[in-house]
Amino acid sequence: MKFPICKECLRNDILCDKCARNVGDKLIKIDEIRMYRTLNNVSRKFSLLKDVEVQRAIKGKDIILIIADKENASKIIGKEGGMVERLSKSLGKQIRVVSEMSKLEDFVKEMFYSTHIIGINVIYGEKDQYKVKIPSSEKGRLPIEPDRFAKIVRSIFGVDAEIIFEN
Ligand SMILES: [Zn+2]
After folding, report:
1. What's the pLDDT tens digit per position in 22-39?
2. In this structure, how many other beta carbons lie within 10 angstroms of the beta carbon of residue 5?
């Protein structure tokens, strides 16, 4: 598999200058880089995944969200979902593969697939602000912590997003 960091950096603990700059620009954090390394190790036994490119890999509590373009996403999913099932088993976590994710709404839908979402409000401005409204009753079982969610959204979409709990 290919990731936003080079082959060397997938093997080493320290990032080379080029990758450090690249992940810095993209606001990719260390937990995501660890996820690349884990996925890289697990995928090595599947030759079909050798040249597959992963854009982002976001780890939630029970799920891993893999973002790739359409062609690569379909390779990761595999015939009748066979490949992603094998990857899931190897990692012991459910994997959701998302392609062509251009809107924040799509990301929210995938990340919070098991959570009831009341709605998403947008306040347009110099920097758009998204408010994702979730019932307070869901608070204890979110797939991702609200502050991590905000960081990842900023990194992928360059906008501010916040989770608001409502009764
Ligand atoms: Zn590197």
Report:
1. 999 999 999 999 999 999
2. 22
